[in-house]
Specification:
This is Helix-turn-helix domain-containing protein. It comes from Thermothielavioides terrestris (strain ATCC 38088 / NRRL 8126). InterPro entries: HTH_put_ascomycetes. This protein has a domain of 69 residues. Helices cover 34% and strands 3% of the residues. It contains three helices and two strands. A two-stranded antiparallel sheet has the order 1-2. The longest helix is centred in the middle third of the chain and has 22 residues. The radius of gyration is 27 Å and the shape is elongated. The chain starts with 18 loop residues before the first strand and ends in a 21-residue tail after the last helix.
């Protein structure tokens, strides 16, 4: 088994005809046209996901080292701890220091009146 070779047929009733693209080059309608990779939303999402995974991996590898600047990527247990501490009245700065988080992580969870732990 190999690659299938198309067998084009002529049909006198066909209304398909070659068209010209923006550069004036004539192309067949059967030629696939793909969006450029820079404007392809799916490829953009996959690229962002790849970069986030790389950052999370780097963060995990640096935990406990002298180059550790705090965590930014959280598991659900840590999110729950943050919300419970915040509910008890601890400041964002205290929570970030105790849980070794980067500054601003607690604020990104949203205001206390909107986000709260489910009990």
């Amino acid at each position: 088994m190999g690659i299938v070779q198309p067998n084009p047929t002529y049909s006198p009733s066909s209304i398909a005809s070659p068209f010209q693209d923006a550069s004036g080059i004539s192309q067949s309608l059967s030629t696939p046209r793909f969006p450029s990779s820079s404007s392809n939303a799916t490829l953009g999402v996959l690229e962002v996901r790849r970069r986030l995974e790389a950052r999370a991996k780097d963060e995990l590898e640096n935990v406990g080292k002298s180059t550790d600047t705090g965590r930014e990527f959280l598991d659900i247990s840590t999110v729950k701890q943050i919300l419970l501490r915040r509910q008890r009245g601890e400041s964002a700065t205290e929570i970030e220091a105790r849980l070794n988080l980067k500054p601003g992580v607690v604020a990104r969870l949203g205001p206390e009146s909107v986000v709260a732990p489910a009990s």
